[in-house]
Amino acid sequence: MNKEFLLLSLKRWQPTRNTLHYYSKAVSVIPRAHTCFRPKWWCISFKVVEDGLITVEMPKPESGSFFIKMNLVNRTVEIITFQDQSRYLSIAAVLASTGF
Question: Which of 86, 25, 81, 87 has its CA nearest to residue 53?
Fold first, then answer.
């Protein structure tokens, strides 16, 4: 096992941690506004993919479902439906619109 990885202190990666935390909080606003009501939304989980993080499938109130991908390479938030519709937002725009 790589000893450098084991010695990684929070101080060394705190800026990255804070950025991912704010991105995650900003993205979690979208399901609260556009999906079926849930009293708590802390259950939104993200999976690591090759270019960022992606949510699990979420139902839309009217019909269908969608998922959200934070593309950290392109710095975009992608909202993708299973009807092959996609919307792309810059991560900076998402953060600004949520007050982060």
Answer: 25
Q: What is the pLDDT of residues 3-46, one digit of tens each?
A: 655 667 788 888 888 878 877 777 777 777 766 666 665 567 78
- Enclosing domain of residue 63: 11-97
Angle (CA) 69-71-74 rounded to 5° is 150
Distance of alpha carbon 36 from alpha carbon 29, whole angstroms: 13
Residues 6+ apart with CB under 8 A from 38: 32
Residue 6 placed within a domain: no
Beta carbons of 57 and 47 less than 8 angstroms apart: no
